[in-house]
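In response to reviewer comment 3 from the previous cycle, which asked for concrete evidence that the modeling workflow produces usable outputs, we include below a single protein chain processed end to end. The sequence was submitted unchanged, and the resulting structure tokens are shown without manual editing.
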Amino acid sequence: METPPAGAAPSTRASDPIGVFDSGVGGLSVLQALRAELPLERFVYLSDSGHAPYGEQDDAYVIRRSQAVTRYLVDHHRIKALVVACNTATAAAIQQLRQDFSDLPIIGIEPALKPAASQSQTKHIGVLATRVTLNSAKFRSLLQSLQGQAHFVIQPCDGLADAIERDDATKIAAGCAEFTRALGQFGKQPGELDTLVLGCTHYPFANDTLRALVGPSVVFLEGGVPVARQTQRLLAQHGWLAGPDVAASRGATGDDAGLLQLLTTGAPASLQAALQRWLKLSPEVQPVVIG
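The workflow returned the following structure tokens.
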């Protein structure tokens, strides 16, 4: 997880929304954690599914899309913070975003290698992620920093995020089976993988399929909850947290606390279906064009 430097700022931003974006629907797993941690906040979630998947593109493409999406959220929704709810975009673009939007707190997500290394009993850990994430300098640096602390088995999962995005059960099952088999033996015995890092925000939505393949004893780690807690800490440092007074003022105008706005550059029906399937929500989804 990435942390920008905090700075002094006025508290007038408390009522502004938090922007959250992903290349598709995977970031909903992070949004779910954010809404649980910050129930008084407003959120604008943008799915860039019209330009997905990011995980099979080069860094330059991911950077361009991340810049365009962030600019849109800043200009059209006056976001007070941005959560990059995409491991691929964090790995490829977050440093550039921090340069381009230096006044905006930006929180990124990264594969949970550090907690995996500290929690694993066998010290053998499987990592599932997109190829772009695994090939990034940021991921290599993270892996290098943990050298000697654990043995990580790394597996690129070409096509899995896209299969989850499309809710293609056949491809999800086939991909999960192929990629977990490639990692090796799971279990609690010496030399076995006792921890599985889900290094893409889409992958938690395949938890049931993965669990059936690796067994009940394997610990799954993903980054939604740590990102939500870091977002809370940064907003508190800036004095931009929405408190009960902000929620009360919204109630007076008919605006519910925790208001959620959904945007997509792709087909609204796809995001609506994912919201219903995974978060049990049925809000309106607005299509947008971001060049």
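The mean pLDDT is 91. We consider this sufficient to address the reviewer's concern, and the full set will be provided in the supplementary archive.
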